[in-house]
Amino acid sequence: MSVSCPVQKKCGGCDFADIPYEEQLAKKQTEMEALLGRFGKVEPILGMEDPYHYRGKVHRVLGFQKGKILSGCYEAGSHRLVNIPECLIEDRKCQEIAAGAVKLIGDFKLRVYDEDTGYGLMRHILVRRGFATDEIMLVLVLSERMFPGKNNFVKALREIHPEITTIVQNVNPGHTSMVLGPQSTTLFGPGFIRDAIGDLTFRISPSSFFQVNPVQTEVLYRTAMDFAGLTGKETVLDAYCGTGTIGMAAAAKAKSVVGVELNPEAVADARRNAADNHIANISFLAEDAGQYMERQAASRILYGRPEEERFDRNEAGKLVTARKGACDVLFMDPPRTGATEKFIRSAAKLSPRRIVYISCGPDTLARDLSLFVKLKYRVEKIQPVDMFPETRHVETVVLLSRKAD
């Protein structure tokens, strides 16, 4: 069964919305086998029981046309705004709140931002919901700090939607396609929400990265942990760690974990998340993952596999130990562009026994696996996960093991 979307062709977000879900999965399976089959068996893709309204994050670009406020996204390959009254993959409650905020913008006669002229106040609406906690955050993105009638607007919004747990004003004054600007002010509530993956809870601020499909995220992370085969004795490196979700899941089954992430805000969230979950054997570094890997690889070459230990204090103030240049298991979850060649070569020099590669870009995954194979790693398992039903995108977990010297 497929459900039609009136703006599918213009929006471009849901490439497969007009295809029955079982056919979507079959199509993705075929594509993954064509891309990755040369490395080994591609396991059957793990799909969803209900492939609709799974996105816990709704973003609306605001515009104005013929006396009416538009709320939607840009047409694929352009900056023409497509009005989206309803979306098949976004959480219903988030959509309802976004629509309520748009109506209030009109009621309060707040001027919507014009991308061409650079004039106007209201730019974007962002709504995020924690599926496990039911906490909801609304972010109003403005072009400037002055917000006329701010208190009355917040009061009216809370009367319409008392389920909102926090409201944040973000200021983005630049002529840019970026949604969020550098400055946020909390107008109501704590300024963040929480959600859970398994037994772990995570703080989500306006700019935090958090998987938009929490149901399949549990499937994805459970697969990654199974592949890692942790016994409690391993030193683990979580590269491109974001807010620390994978590393924190691994910490319960590892000796120690180090997470590396370039975005300092994500690292700050990761440290808070670890402290909130009382995880003492994990630490985080705000650093480029590639550069960190190169430095660790140099230590590996210099010291071999030394028995001496380096002591670091984690964010809870306790000591975490890690051998210089040592890494037993490497988790890597790079952006869609994949890892750099320097990163991969450094990872191979660091010589972890197992590498768990989580990829949202099948093409770049195939490229990177080719290099790992040349560097004496063997692909053991390939598991696609359908994180984004109705779209062409696929997330994949791959286990690599180091070949014997």
Would you kindly provide a written description of the structure presented here, covering whatever features stand out?
The protein has 405 residues and is α/β, with parallel strands linked by helices. Helix content is 30%, strand content 27%. The protein has ten helices and 18 strands. The strands form four sheets. The protein has a seven-stranded mixed beta sheet, with helices on one face. A hairpin with a 5-residue loop joins strand 13 and strand 14 (319-323). Mean pLDDT is 90; it is low at 302-324.
List keywords for this structure.
about 30% helix; 10 helices; about 400 residues; alpha/beta; 7-stranded mixed beta sheet
Helices and strands, with pairings:
Blueprint: H1 8-11, H2 21-36, E1 57-65, E2 68-74, E3 81-83, H3 92-107, E4 122-129, E5 136-142, H4 150-160, E6 166-171, E7 183-188, E8 193-197, E9 200-204, H5 214-228, E10 235-239, H6 245-251, E11 256-261, H7 264-276, E12 282-286, H8 289-303, E13 309-313, E14 319-323, E15 329-332, H9 341-350, E16 354-359, H10 362-374, E17 377-385, E18 395-402
Parallel strand pairs: 5-6, 10-11, 10-15, 11-12, 15-16
Antiparallel strand pairs: 1-2, 1-4, 2-3, 4-5, 6-7, 8-9, 13-14, 16-18, 17-18
